[in-house]
Amino acid sequence: MEAVYRSVRRACYAGFDSVTLRREVAARVAPAVPYDKYAFSTCDPDTGLMTHTVADGVTSDLARAYVERLYPYHCACLTMDVPRTGVAVFSMLDLSPPTRDVLAAHGFDEQLQVSLTAEGRLVGTWCMMRADDAPPPRDAERALLRRLIPHVTRGLQAAARVDHGLAAARGGAIDDADHAPGILVLDARDRPTTRTPLAAAWLDDLADVGLDMPDGLPLAVHALVVRLRAVRADVAADAHVRLRGRSGRWYVLRASLAEPDAYGECAIVVVVRPAVPREVATLLTRLYGLSTREREIAAAVARGESTKEIAAALGLSPHTVLEHIDRACGKIGVHGRKALIAKLFFDGYHPLLGQSA
Predict the structure, then answer these.
(1) Cβ-contact 162, 12 below 8 angstroms
(2) What is the DSSP string of 55-104?
(3) pLDDT, tens digit, for every residue of 236-270?
(4) Which residues form the HTH luxR-type domain (predicted)?
(5) C-alpha angle 184/188/189, rounded to 5°?
(6) Which CATH number fits domain 182-280: 3.30.450.20, 3.40.50.300, 3.20.20.150, 3.40.640.10?
(7) Is pTM, for the whole model, over 0.90?
(8) Among 2, 14, 21, 182, which residue's CB has the most CB atoms within a 10 Å radius?
Protein backbone atom coordinates (compact mmCIF):
# COMPACT_ATOMS: atom_id res chain seq x y z
CA MET A 1 0.00 0.00 0.00
CA GLU A 2 2.76 2.45 0.92
CA ALA A 3 4.58 1.96 -2.39
CA VAL A 4 1.35 2.62 -4.29
CA TYR A 5 0.69 5.73 -2.20
CA ARG A 6 4.14 7.13 -2.98
CA SER A 7 3.79 6.32 -6.68
CA VAL A 8 0.42 8.06 -7.02
CA ARG A 9 1.61 11.04 -4.99
CA ARG A 10 4.59 11.46 -7.35
CA ALA A 11 2.24 11.45 -10.34
CA CYS A 12 0.15 14.21 -8.78
CA TYR A 13 3.12 16.58 -8.70
CA ALA A 14 4.74 15.53 -11.98
CA GLY A 15 3.24 18.34 -14.08
CA PHE A 16 0.99 16.13 -16.21
CA ASP A 17 -1.90 17.47 -18.25
CA SER A 18 -5.38 16.49 -17.04
CA VAL A 19 -5.92 13.45 -19.27
CA THR A 20 -2.46 12.01 -18.57
CA LEU A 21 -2.82 12.63 -14.83
CA ARG A 22 -6.13 10.80 -14.58
CA ARG A 23 -4.78 7.83 -16.55
CA GLU A 24 -1.62 7.69 -14.45
CA VAL A 25 -3.49 7.89 -11.13
CA ALA A 26 -5.87 5.11 -12.17
CA ALA A 27 -3.05 2.87 -13.40
CA ARG A 28 -0.89 3.39 -10.30
CA VAL A 29 -3.76 2.81 -7.87
CA ALA A 30 -4.85 -0.44 -9.53
CA PRO A 31 -2.35 -2.78 -7.79
CA ALA A 32 -3.75 -1.80 -4.38
CA VAL A 33 -7.35 -1.00 -5.30
CA PRO A 34 -8.29 -3.35 -8.15
CA TYR A 35 -11.16 -2.51 -10.50
CA ASP A 36 -12.55 -3.81 -13.78
CA LYS A 37 -13.67 -0.50 -15.23
CA TYR A 38 -13.46 3.14 -14.25
CA ALA A 39 -14.63 6.61 -15.25
CA PHE A 40 -12.72 9.65 -13.98
CA SER A 41 -14.33 13.04 -14.65
CA THR A 42 -13.26 16.61 -14.08
CA CYS A 43 -16.00 18.95 -12.86
CA ASP A 44 -16.89 22.63 -13.11
CA PRO A 45 -16.20 23.86 -9.55
CA ASP A 46 -18.94 26.48 -9.85
CA THR A 47 -21.69 23.96 -10.66
CA GLY A 48 -20.25 20.55 -9.71
CA LEU A 49 -21.28 19.19 -13.13
CA MET A 50 -18.85 16.98 -15.06
CA THR A 51 -16.86 18.64 -17.83
CA HIS A 52 -14.71 15.84 -19.30
CA THR A 53 -14.36 12.09 -18.73
CA VAL A 54 -11.46 9.66 -19.03
CA ALA A 55 -12.64 6.05 -18.91
CA ASP A 56 -11.38 2.52 -19.33
CA GLY A 57 -13.56 -0.46 -20.21
CA VAL A 58 -16.87 1.43 -19.97
CA THR A 59 -19.21 0.40 -22.78
CA SER A 60 -21.31 2.93 -24.65
CA ASP A 61 -24.48 1.21 -23.35
CA LEU A 62 -23.40 1.68 -19.73
CA ALA A 63 -22.30 5.26 -20.40
CA ARG A 64 -25.68 6.12 -21.95
CA ALA A 65 -27.55 4.48 -19.07
CA TYR A 66 -25.47 6.51 -16.65
CA VAL A 67 -26.15 9.91 -18.19
CA GLU A 68 -29.79 9.19 -19.07
CA ARG A 69 -31.00 7.37 -15.95
CA LEU A 70 -28.54 8.04 -13.11
CA TYR A 71 -26.44 11.17 -13.39
CA PRO A 72 -29.10 13.90 -13.56
CA TYR A 73 -31.34 12.33 -10.91
CA HIS A 74 -29.01 10.58 -8.46
CA CYS A 75 -25.26 10.61 -8.99
CA ALA A 76 -24.67 14.32 -9.63
CA CYS A 77 -26.24 15.28 -6.31
CA LEU A 78 -24.59 12.48 -4.35
CA THR A 79 -21.09 13.31 -5.59
CA MET A 80 -21.60 16.89 -4.34
CA ASP A 81 -23.65 16.26 -1.19
CA VAL A 82 -21.87 13.28 0.43
CA PRO A 83 -18.48 15.07 0.78
CA ARG A 84 -20.24 17.82 2.76
CA THR A 85 -20.83 15.19 5.45
CA GLY A 86 -17.08 14.53 5.68
CA VAL A 87 -17.16 11.34 3.56
CA ALA A 88 -15.24 11.49 0.27
CA VAL A 89 -14.88 7.75 -0.46
CA PHE A 90 -18.16 5.85 -0.60
CA SER A 91 -20.27 3.48 -2.67
CA MET A 92 -23.16 4.78 -4.77
CA LEU A 93 -24.72 1.34 -4.39
CA ASP A 94 -25.34 1.97 -0.69
CA LEU A 95 -27.08 5.29 -1.34
CA SER A 96 -28.88 4.88 -4.67
CA PRO A 97 -30.93 1.74 -5.45
CA PRO A 98 -31.31 2.80 -9.13
CA THR A 99 -27.51 2.93 -9.43
CA ARG A 100 -27.25 -0.55 -7.94
CA ASP A 101 -29.84 -1.84 -10.43
CA VAL A 102 -28.18 -0.29 -13.47
CA LEU A 103 -24.68 -1.49 -12.56
CA ALA A 104 -25.97 -4.98 -11.71
CA ALA A 105 -27.65 -5.15 -15.12
CA HIS A 106 -24.24 -4.51 -16.68
CA GLY A 107 -22.45 -7.11 -14.54
CA PHE A 108 -21.13 -5.01 -11.64
CA ASP A 109 -21.94 -5.63 -7.99
CA GLU A 110 -19.25 -3.48 -6.36
CA GLN A 111 -18.43 0.18 -6.82
CA LEU A 112 -16.31 2.86 -5.16
CA GLN A 113 -16.81 6.59 -5.66
CA VAL A 114 -14.19 9.23 -4.88
CA SER A 115 -15.25 12.88 -4.71
CA LEU A 116 -12.42 15.40 -5.02
CA THR A 117 -13.20 18.83 -3.56
CA ALA A 118 -11.30 22.08 -3.04
CA GLU A 119 -12.70 24.79 -0.78
CA GLY A 120 -15.97 22.88 -0.67
CA ARG A 121 -16.31 22.73 -4.46
CA LEU A 122 -16.26 19.57 -6.54
CA VAL A 123 -13.34 19.50 -9.00
CA GLY A 124 -13.40 15.82 -9.92
CA THR A 125 -15.15 12.51 -9.39
CA TRP A 126 -13.81 8.99 -9.89
CA CYS A 127 -15.97 5.88 -10.20
CA MET A 128 -14.37 2.41 -9.96
CA MET A 129 -16.47 -0.68 -10.73
CA ARG A 130 -15.92 -4.37 -10.01
CA ALA A 131 -17.53 -7.37 -11.67
CA ASP A 132 -19.98 -9.75 -9.99
CA ASP A 133 -17.35 -12.21 -8.78
CA ALA A 134 -15.04 -9.57 -7.28
CA PRO A 135 -14.66 -9.17 -3.51
CA PRO A 136 -16.03 -6.00 -1.87
CA PRO A 137 -13.59 -3.14 -1.24
CA ARG A 138 -11.53 -3.57 1.92
CA ASP A 139 -11.14 -0.95 4.63
CA ALA A 140 -7.45 -0.64 3.69
CA GLU A 141 -8.39 0.24 0.12
CA ARG A 142 -10.76 2.96 1.24
CA ALA A 143 -8.14 4.29 3.65
CA LEU A 144 -5.56 4.49 0.87
CA LEU A 145 -7.94 6.44 -1.35
CA ARG A 146 -8.72 8.84 1.51
CA ARG A 147 -4.99 9.49 1.99
CA LEU A 148 -4.59 10.19 -1.71
CA ILE A 149 -7.51 12.62 -2.06
CA PRO A 150 -5.65 15.86 -1.16
CA HIS A 151 -2.80 14.99 -3.53
CA VAL A 152 -5.05 14.03 -6.44
CA THR A 153 -7.13 17.16 -5.89
CA ARG A 154 -4.05 19.38 -6.02
CA GLY A 155 -2.88 17.40 -9.04
CA LEU A 156 -6.13 18.11 -10.90
CA GLN A 157 -5.85 21.82 -10.09
CA ALA A 158 -2.24 21.89 -11.31
CA ALA A 159 -3.21 19.93 -14.44
CA ALA A 160 -5.86 22.54 -15.22
CA ARG A 161 -3.10 25.16 -15.18
CA VAL A 162 -0.98 22.96 -17.46
CA ASP A 163 -3.90 22.56 -19.88
CA HIS A 164 -4.48 26.32 -19.87
CA GLY A 165 -0.82 27.01 -20.55
CA LEU A 166 -0.65 24.43 -23.36
CA ALA A 167 -3.75 25.92 -24.98
CA ALA A 168 -2.19 29.39 -24.90
CA ALA A 169 1.10 28.05 -26.31
CA ARG A 170 -0.78 26.43 -29.20
CA GLY A 171 -2.63 29.66 -29.88
CA GLY A 172 -5.66 28.36 -28.02
CA ALA A 173 -6.37 31.51 -26.02
CA ILE A 174 -9.77 32.85 -27.04
CA ASP A 175 -10.68 36.52 -27.13
CA ASP A 176 -14.01 38.25 -27.66
CA ALA A 177 -13.50 38.36 -31.43
CA ASP A 178 -12.81 34.65 -31.80
CA HIS A 179 -15.63 32.62 -30.30
CA ALA A 180 -17.70 31.65 -33.34
CA PRO A 181 -20.46 29.16 -32.51
CA GLY A 182 -21.18 25.77 -33.98
CA ILE A 183 -24.65 24.25 -34.21
CA LEU A 184 -25.69 20.71 -33.30
CA VAL A 185 -29.28 19.53 -33.85
CA LEU A 186 -30.68 16.38 -32.20
CA ASP A 187 -33.99 14.82 -33.17
CA ALA A 188 -36.75 13.85 -30.74
CA ARG A 189 -34.84 10.66 -29.90
CA ASP A 190 -31.65 12.66 -29.30
CA ARG A 191 -29.89 11.43 -32.41
CA PRO A 192 -27.66 13.99 -34.16
CA THR A 193 -29.15 15.15 -37.46
CA THR A 194 -27.10 18.29 -38.12
CA ARG A 195 -23.55 19.14 -37.08
CA THR A 196 -21.91 22.22 -38.58
CA PRO A 197 -18.16 22.11 -39.28
CA LEU A 198 -17.40 24.37 -36.31
CA ALA A 199 -19.58 22.25 -34.02
CA ALA A 200 -17.70 19.16 -35.20
CA ALA A 201 -14.36 20.84 -34.43
CA TRP A 202 -15.40 22.04 -30.96
CA LEU A 203 -17.01 18.69 -30.08
CA ASP A 204 -13.89 16.83 -31.19
CA ASP A 205 -11.90 18.82 -28.63
CA LEU A 206 -14.55 18.00 -26.01
CA ALA A 207 -14.60 14.26 -26.80
CA ASP A 208 -14.15 11.99 -23.79
CA VAL A 209 -11.15 9.67 -23.64
CA GLY A 210 -11.70 5.90 -23.55
CA LEU A 211 -15.39 6.10 -24.46
CA ASP A 212 -16.54 5.12 -27.95
CA MET A 213 -20.02 6.62 -28.17
CA PRO A 214 -21.88 5.69 -31.39
CA ASP A 215 -22.96 9.28 -32.01
CA GLY A 216 -19.57 10.73 -31.12
CA LEU A 217 -21.00 13.10 -28.52
CA PRO A 218 -19.35 13.67 -25.11
CA LEU A 219 -21.16 12.36 -22.03
CA ALA A 220 -21.53 15.91 -20.74
CA VAL A 221 -23.50 16.85 -23.86
CA HIS A 222 -25.84 13.89 -23.32
CA ALA A 223 -26.26 14.95 -19.69
CA LEU A 224 -27.13 18.50 -20.81
CA VAL A 225 -29.78 17.21 -23.21
CA VAL A 226 -31.28 14.88 -20.61
CA ARG A 227 -31.42 17.73 -18.11
CA LEU A 228 -33.27 19.93 -20.62
CA ARG A 229 -35.83 17.26 -21.48
CA ALA A 230 -36.42 16.49 -17.80
CA VAL A 231 -37.71 20.03 -17.18
CA ARG A 232 -41.12 21.10 -18.44
CA ALA A 233 -40.90 23.38 -21.46
CA ASP A 234 -43.01 26.02 -19.73
CA VAL A 235 -40.53 26.17 -16.84
CA ALA A 236 -37.18 26.36 -18.65
CA ALA A 237 -36.63 27.01 -22.35
CA ASP A 238 -32.94 26.17 -22.37
CA ALA A 239 -30.03 24.74 -20.37
CA HIS A 240 -26.34 25.52 -20.48
CA VAL A 241 -23.04 24.18 -19.20
CA ARG A 242 -19.32 25.02 -19.32
CA LEU A 243 -16.96 22.28 -20.48
CA ARG A 244 -13.18 22.05 -20.85
CA GLY A 245 -11.66 20.38 -23.90
CA ARG A 246 -8.54 18.26 -24.12
CA SER A 247 -6.73 21.32 -25.45
CA GLY A 248 -7.39 23.21 -22.20
CA ARG A 249 -9.86 25.54 -23.91
CA TRP A 250 -13.17 26.23 -22.15
CA TYR A 251 -16.49 26.10 -24.01
CA VAL A 252 -20.05 27.20 -23.36
CA LEU A 253 -22.87 24.96 -24.56
CA ARG A 254 -26.49 26.08 -24.61
CA ALA A 255 -29.29 23.67 -25.49
CA SER A 256 -32.87 24.70 -26.30
CA LEU A 257 -36.03 22.93 -27.38
CA ALA A 258 -37.25 23.59 -30.89
CA GLU A 259 -40.94 24.11 -31.67
CA PRO A 260 -42.95 20.86 -31.54
CA ASP A 261 -43.55 19.13 -34.86
CA ALA A 262 -46.88 17.77 -36.11
CA TYR A 263 -46.58 14.87 -33.66
CA GLY A 264 -45.83 17.10 -30.69
CA GLU A 265 -42.16 16.04 -30.57
CA CYS A 266 -39.32 18.52 -30.09
CA ALA A 267 -35.85 18.53 -31.54
CA ILE A 268 -33.02 20.08 -29.52
CA VAL A 269 -30.64 22.74 -30.83
CA VAL A 270 -27.23 22.94 -29.11
CA VAL A 271 -25.02 25.97 -29.66
CA VAL A 272 -21.37 25.31 -28.77
CA ARG A 273 -18.61 27.90 -28.80
CA PRO A 274 -15.34 28.74 -27.03
CA ALA A 275 -15.90 30.74 -23.86
CA VAL A 276 -14.80 34.34 -23.62
CA PRO A 277 -12.75 35.35 -20.54
CA ARG A 278 -15.59 36.85 -18.55
CA GLU A 279 -17.49 33.54 -18.74
CA VAL A 280 -14.75 31.60 -16.97
CA ALA A 281 -13.57 34.24 -14.53
CA THR A 282 -14.14 32.29 -11.34
CA LEU A 283 -12.74 29.12 -12.89
CA LEU A 284 -9.49 30.71 -13.99
CA THR A 285 -8.83 32.54 -10.73
CA ARG A 286 -9.30 29.23 -8.91
CA LEU A 287 -6.58 27.57 -10.98
CA TYR A 288 -4.04 29.05 -8.59
CA GLY A 289 -6.09 28.09 -5.54
CA LEU A 290 -6.63 31.68 -4.37
CA SER A 291 -9.18 32.11 -1.59
CA THR A 292 -12.08 34.53 -2.02
CA ARG A 293 -10.28 37.21 0.00
CA GLU A 294 -7.03 36.67 -1.91
CA ARG A 295 -8.90 37.09 -5.20
CA GLU A 296 -10.47 40.34 -3.94
CA ILE A 297 -7.10 41.73 -2.92
CA ALA A 298 -5.36 40.54 -6.10
CA ALA A 299 -8.06 42.35 -8.09
CA ALA A 300 -7.42 45.54 -6.13
CA VAL A 301 -3.65 45.21 -6.63
CA ALA A 302 -4.21 44.77 -10.37
CA ARG A 303 -6.28 47.96 -10.37
CA GLY A 304 -3.35 49.81 -8.84
CA GLU A 305 -4.85 50.42 -5.39
CA SER A 306 -2.43 50.98 -2.50
CA THR A 307 -2.27 48.78 0.59
CA LYS A 308 -3.98 51.49 2.66
CA GLU A 309 -6.77 51.86 0.08
CA ILE A 310 -7.36 48.12 -0.02
CA ALA A 311 -7.37 47.90 3.77
CA ALA A 312 -9.91 50.73 4.09
CA ALA A 313 -12.20 49.29 1.40
CA LEU A 314 -12.24 45.78 2.89
CA GLY A 315 -12.15 46.74 6.56
CA LEU A 316 -8.80 45.07 7.19
CA SER A 317 -5.53 46.20 8.67
CA PRO A 318 -2.68 47.02 6.24
CA HIS A 319 -0.69 44.18 7.82
CA THR A 320 -3.44 41.69 7.02
CA VAL A 321 -3.65 42.95 3.43
CA LEU A 322 0.09 42.42 3.03
CA GLU A 323 -0.24 38.89 4.40
CA HIS A 324 -2.93 38.12 1.81
CA ILE A 325 -0.76 39.56 -0.96
CA ASP A 326 2.18 37.43 0.18
CA ARG A 327 0.02 34.30 0.24
CA ALA A 328 -1.38 35.06 -3.24
CA CYS A 329 2.14 35.63 -4.57
CA GLY A 330 3.27 32.34 -3.02
CA LYS A 331 0.44 30.39 -4.66
CA ILE A 332 1.04 32.00 -8.05
CA GLY A 333 4.82 31.64 -7.76
CA VAL A 334 5.96 35.26 -7.89
CA HIS A 335 7.42 37.84 -5.48
CA GLY A 336 6.02 41.32 -5.01
CA ARG A 337 3.23 43.47 -6.38
CA LYS A 338 4.78 44.15 -9.78
CA ALA A 339 5.44 40.49 -10.46
CA LEU A 340 1.91 39.61 -9.28
CA ILE A 341 0.33 42.11 -11.68
CA ALA A 342 2.54 40.97 -14.58
CA LYS A 343 1.76 37.32 -13.99
CA LEU A 344 -1.99 37.87 -13.80
CA PHE A 345 -1.96 40.10 -16.86
CA PHE A 346 0.15 37.91 -19.12
CA ASP A 347 -1.78 34.78 -18.16
CA GLY A 348 -4.86 36.52 -19.42
CA TYR A 349 -6.45 37.02 -16.03
CA HIS A 350 -6.33 40.81 -15.93
CA PRO A 351 -9.85 41.30 -17.38
CA LEU A 352 -11.17 38.65 -15.00
CA LEU A 353 -10.04 39.87 -11.62
CA GLY A 354 -12.52 42.68 -11.17
CA GLN A 355 -15.45 40.28 -11.40
CA SER A 356 -17.06 38.71 -8.37
CA ALA A 357 -15.64 35.42 -7.11
Answers:
(1) no
(2) EES--HHHHHHIIIIIIIIIIHHHHHHGGGGT--EE-HHHH-HHHHHHHH
(3) 567 888 898 888 788 999 999 988 888 888 899 99
(4) 283-348
(5) 95
(6) 3.30.450.20
(7) no
(8) 21
